[in-house]
Amino acid sequence: MSTVTDRQSLCLTPAELVQITGYKMASCQLAELKKQGFYRARRNSLGAVILERDHYTAVCAGQVRQDVPNQPTLRPPRLRAAA
What we know:
Layout: H1 14-21, H2 26-35, E1 42-43, E2 49-50, H3 53-60
Antiparallel strand pairs: 1-2
Helix pairs in contact: 1-2
């Protein structure tokens, strides 16, 4: 029978995030995670980066599509004609 200490936590630990991103600063970690395709990475109310272990595993295994419908898309700017 497994104990609570045998189970992995629901989210990656701060040490794991530093190992994955190479950054200690939360804003840099978040930017790097988004760049690597972890679109569900976010910051909590204390400012710490949160990345669910299941999402990390799915992205690394290639099970998550990169064209996620919930992601915002930007339209190119419309240029005005010179007056």
